[in-house]
Amino acid sequence: MGGISHTPFSRLTPVFDGHNDLLLRLWLDDAPDAVDRFLHQQLDGQLDLARMQLGGFAGGLFAVFVPPGSLMPQLKPDAPAQPHDPLAITHEQIALLQQIEAHSAGRAKICRNARQITDCIEQNILAMVLHIEGAEALDGSAEQLDALYQAGLRSIGPLWNNPNQFGYGVTGSFPASPDSGDGLTAAGVALLHACNRKKILIDLSHMNEKAFWQVAQHSTAPLVATHSNAHALCPQPRNLTDKQLAAIGESRGFVGVNFGNAFLRADGKRDSDTPLSDIIRHLDYLLEKLGEEGVGFGSDFDGVSVPAALCDVAGLPRLMAAMRGAGYSQQLIENIAWRNWLNVLSRSW
Questions:
Q1: What is the pTM of this model?
Q2: What is the CATH number of the domain that holds 331?
Q3: pLDDT interval class at 51 (50, 70, 90)
Q4: How far is residue 149's CA from residue 164's CA, in Å, rounded to a whole number?
């Protein structure tokens, strides 16, 4: 595997993570061997199987993200011009996840329930949960949602930053409030109810404040933000206010801490000269607000710049060491690293 030695998960704290953008990276790569390189070599980004094993990364929510059409010439400059088709792109990225499972020789699995995730962690198999970030491709029909559910979909963030048929995502530059406009449309509320019926997790991480409170009003599931931080410590509009955190706590919900420098730092800069203590600072704050069962990780690997001390997924043991240095017990570290995610997914699904 590219000369990288492997450390068995049994010697590491396993990590189940709330968000990564690997599928987007592989899709943008647009090479026929992209999946095989993920499985057998070291990729240019922050994630590949070898480094996941080095870091103890046991699994997580793998996001399907359709970039806005206006960004496509910049993201794929060599690709032939073609109509922007969010549904086709969604299926192409789902196919990449399926190829990872099919080509992995049993080392990776698409998981559809919490028991399968637990089994994978115990067997050192990469546990992959299909997530959609920004539901532009969906029409809200029961048939479409059924088909995606059968493919493994278990988590949806209906909104990203741009408006879509389901509502208005959070926007604004640093520093700003998450109150950035209208919330969910009628179609967005209907999608929320449909996901509740099918036990699909609703992700709050890119919702503006009005949409957040609509979910809090209408949803019957725990409130979950898969990759967001504390607004009181870093006033990015994507981070969560104390009032929002109180509502998440009341629902026995959950927040996955984002490792992105811009969501960690008090100055909001995307500067990788960011100490791991900034991640600890957000963990401490969220633990105070949500309790020891309401906090985990939502790294946003392959989607953001992270602290240089972390660098990539192989750096996760350094974060665990920083948590131990900050006085976290091994039990609390394990809860944050994976047990809390399994708990909230069990209750959501």
A1: 0.95
A2: 3.20.20.140
A3: very high
A4: 21
